[in-house]
Write a structure and sequence with these properties.
By secondary structure, the chain is mainly α. It has seven helices and four strands. Helix 4 (about 75-90) crosses helix 5 (about 90-105). Bound molecules: zinc ion. The site of zinc ion (ZN) has 6 residues, from helix 2.
Amino acid sequence: MISRQQAIARKRKRYSTGKPCPHGHVCERFVSNYACVECMNIKMKKFHAAYSRMWFQKNKKKARASRKAWYLRNIDKVRKFAKIRRKNNPASYMLSATKHRAKSLNIKFNLTIDDIVIPKFCPVLGIKLRMGKGNTVNSSPTVDRINSKKGYTKGNVAVISHLANSLKGFATAAQHRRIAAWMETFK
Ligand SMILES: [Zn+2]
């Protein structure tokens, strides 16, 4: 713990009080303005986000063109990074893939990383879930919309195998029962 006076004496930019800020952050304060470091981070993040949103709204065409150009210039890097991310942080990878999917299907999306819980085994078929190497295989974990009429929304998703997900499709449980019953008549 270093007081503000000590911090000044040691030419440090931050000091600590040991007490929570009005927002409950127990962290360092800036010598210059007494501000809580965490509050300041949040404020700056919000400011930058708002600013870049505003800039994007005004410069949509330019922004899209430059984003695309950057993507094409760095396509190898992007792919390599995606591969590493898929391996090291599958949930984060799946979250953004799902977000893209929701956008292209024009359906609701409000998931966060906490909603992507990847079990060891597919809860439907019991097969071991494995991240594919870029290609989707039967045992790849996929984000299923429990009720396929609803979007990728909190409480409406489960991570199941690609096989289970594609078999499930948009059929209802009653329809699946009928399919199973029909298949069994041929046994
Ligand atoms: Zn704070």
